[in-house]
Design goal:
Blueprint (H helix, E strand, L loop, with lengths): L2 E7 L2 E7 L7 E3 L21 H15 L2 H14 L8 E5 H16 L1
Antiparallel strand pairs: 1-2, 1-4, 2-3
Helix pairs in contact: 1-2, 2-3
Length: 110
């Protein structure tokens, strides 16, 4: 199972994907500027803005493997999860992300 670990540094927010199935045990999260370029400054979290939008899109694209679905859900995911992360670090499991996506999808069906 993947884990997404973010850290605010003097150079900005860095997010790593910890994945034991990947060579080296993980990789930096791709910001997916090819899908949308919300933030010229990269990732952020803990508020509702362009950096959190980019992070939300990137995490969903990585977890879901479905760019269209990631694009469709990323603003709601940002509002439900990413904007509510406190402090200067965070950790989300792939399961946390999938549960939030399921809740969002169920809410859209109502």
């Amino acid at each position: 199972m993947k884990h997404y670990v973010g850290d605010r540094t003097p150079d900005g927010c860095e997010v790593m994907v910890l994945d034991m199935n990947h060579e080296g045990g993980g990789y930096p999260l791709d910001p997916r500027f090819d899908l949308r370029r919300h933030s010229p400054d990269g990732f952020e979290f803990g508020f509702s803005g362009s950096g959190p939008s980019q992070l939300s899109l990137a995490i969903l694209a990585d977890v879901l493997g479905d760019d269209k679905m990631a694009d469709k859900l990323h603003i709601d995911f940002k509002n439900k999860v990413i904007s509510r992360l406190d402090g200067n670090t965070f950790s989300l499991s792939e399961e946390d992300v999938r549960l939030a996506v399921a809740e969002l999808a169920a809410g859209r069906k109502r």
